[in-house]
C-alpha cells in the first residue's frame, strides 16, 4: 500500500516538471518571435540579382539619360542656392562696411586748394627735389593715410628745415597723387615732387619763403589716429567684399548657364540598366 502511494507521488511530481518545462519553452519561443518581428529581413546579394533578373524592367537609353540629367540638375540647383546664400551674406557685410565708412568720413572735412598759394620757379623745384631725395629723415605714411598727426609732424619738421619728405607705401600712383594734394591743401606747403623710391613713393614739400607756423598745428577737420585706422580697415573690408561678390556673381552666372545646357545634354551609355519596382 505504501509503495503504491509513493509511485503515485512520483508520477504527479514528474507531470508537474513536464508542465513547467513546456511553459518555459513557450515563453522563450514568444520572446524570439518578438525579436524577429522587430528586425527587418534582408536578402543576400545573389537573391537581389535573382529578383532583379526575374521581376526587373529594362531601362531605355532615353530614360537613363533623363534620370542622370535630372540628378545632375538637382545637384546644380542645390549648389546654386547655397552660393546665392553666401552672396546675400557678403552683400549684407558690404552694406555694413559702407555705413561704417560713411559714418567715419562724416567727421572729416578736407580743406580745398588755396588760390593765393606761393609758387616756386623750375630751378628752385629741381634744387629742392635733389636736396629732398638726399634727406635721410622722413615721415612714414602708413595704412591710416592722412590724419591730424601727419600734418602736425610736418609743421614740426618745418620748424628746423625748409623741406620735409614723406614716404607713402601706396601702390597706385593715382592714390599717391590724391594723398599728395590733400597734404598740400591741409599743410599749406608747396608740393615739390613725387618720386618713386625703393621704400615706396617719396613726397617732398617746401614750406615757402613766407611760412608762418599756425597757432594750432593739429587740424581739427581731419580724422584722429584711431578713426583713421578704423577708416582704413573699413575701406580694405569694403574692397575685399566687392571683389568677393564679383567672383560669386560670375560663378552663379556660369552655373545657371550650365543648368540651361543640361537640358540639351545627351548621354550615350554602353549598357542598359534594370530597376526593381
Automatic annotation (TrEMBL):
Taking every annotated instance into account, which residue ranges of this chain make up the domain CRM?
A: 118-218
Q: Where in the cell is it found?
A: Plastid, Chloroplast
Give the Gene Ontology MF terms in alphabetical order. Answer: mRNA binding
Cite a single GO BP annotation: Group II intron splicing
Which InterPro entries does the UniProt record give?
A: CRS1/CFM2/CFM3, RNA-binding_CRM, YhbY-like_sf
Pfam families, per the entry: CRS1_YhbY (PF01985)
Q: Which UniProt keywords apply?
A: Chloroplast, Coiled coil, mRNA processing, mRNA splicing, Plastid, Repeat, Ribonucleoprotein, RNA-binding, Transit peptide
Classification via PROSITE patterns: CRM
Protein name per UniProt: CRM domain-containing protein
Q: What is the lineage of its organism?
A: Eukaryota, Viridiplantae, Streptophyta, Embryophyta, Tracheophyta
